Amino acid sequence: MSRQMVRPGGRSARVQSAVHTAVRELEAEVGRDGLTVPLIAQRAGVTPSTIYRRWGDLTQLLSDVAVERLRPDTAPRDHGGLASDLTAWAEQFLDEMASPAGRAYIRDALLGDPDGSNAGQCSAYAADQIDVILTRAAERGEGTPDVETVVDHVVAPLMYRILFRPAGLDAAHARGLVAGLLAGNAAET
Amino acid sequence: MSRQMVRPGGRSARVQSAVHTAVRELEAEVGRDGLTVPLIAQRAGVTPSTIYRRWGDLTQLLSDVAVERLRPDTAPRDHGGLASDLTAWAEQFLDEMASPAGRAYIRDALLGDPDGSNAGQCSAYAADQIDVILTRAAERGEGTPDVETVVDHVVAPLMYRILFRPAGLDAAHARGLVAGLLAGNAAET
DNA sequence: ACCTTAAAGCAAACCTGTTGCTTCTGGGGG
DNA sequence: CCCCCAGAAGCAACAGGTTTGCTTTAAGGT
Lengths: 189, 189
Hints:
The structure is a homodimer. Chain A is mostly helical. Chain A is built from nine helices and no strands. Chain A has two domains: about 10-55, Arc Repressor Mutant, subunit A (Orthogonal Bundle), CATH 1.10.10.60; about 70-189, Tetracycline Repressor, domain 2 (Orthogonal Bundle), CATH 1.10.357.10. Chain A is elongated, with a radius of gyration of 19 Å. The model of chain A is unreliable at about 1-5 (pLDDT under 50).
């Protein structure tokens, strides 16, 4: 998101959105590797130099678009209990992130991200979702672990394996991580 | 490493090593962003097309070099006990990986890695080191967790935070992860 | 309505990345 | 020991992506 807040109502905003749209359309049409800045510029009705000046290069533009796509569009479903909420969320997270498309977005997001702000944003999305789940659990009177603890015990292992060790990663593993977290955390209740 | 085993004694090997050396030298001289294939080729006394044909593009070449640099050069030190061995290893791992240089290498390794083999290699390095520690502990008669468990509880959280959430990551956090792992795992002894 | 300023358009220069073909090196067979 | 073969590097020309200085346009404030 590094370069988004620019005169929200004006021409910049139109260009921004036209470019993002062009990226998404062309990605579907010509594939991830067929994307080039001049091509995107043409589709967006913009000159290449505009893109280079605003985003720096293709990787940073793709990083912006990727982060946008990794934003959860809906709050985590309420299954009536912390364990089932977390389990369902972890399974869905894994599903989305481990898919070829998800992996590509994660890579893109990390790739064109000199200062780490896009990666931070992704992590914040996950943390927010977890926070919603934990808050709900607390309101029910359930004992809950810390957000950071959930990040360390569930999100991090899933993401690490997606990036470095895809083999043997499945929904069962995700469930195991959540179970391990809640078991080890029982003392805190 | 994907493209290294090529006629070990011949010209290919010389080119390989000349190019790798050139990358390391130039990275120190002109910085990560100043690197270009033609520049590296010139320093290595090679034509650009050679590099393009062997490595594909700059990112894949950098990925190869990065993985080489991420290989641990020494076995983990023996501190006489599982807890201290793991703690020391985790602290050192964090030190090396969280440094600006380490982060750059990780990013490079992930970046130019279409099939995930370089990332897998990095993960294997860590797993091997942990295996050495666990084997040593088992020989002492200590109860030990599984390698995969250590990866999930220590390596993954560290790596996830290095990539996505650098804030508040320090040696204390690393120690806490190891402590949490061993506490939760006490039952297995 | 004007004025300021940031961002987009334009066009030319530059350089990276690509490719077909040739040349050379090193290993294996006769 | 020499010759032949396959693979890899050199070379050169080309296509296209990237950079940059200058001009023009459009938002927003006065």
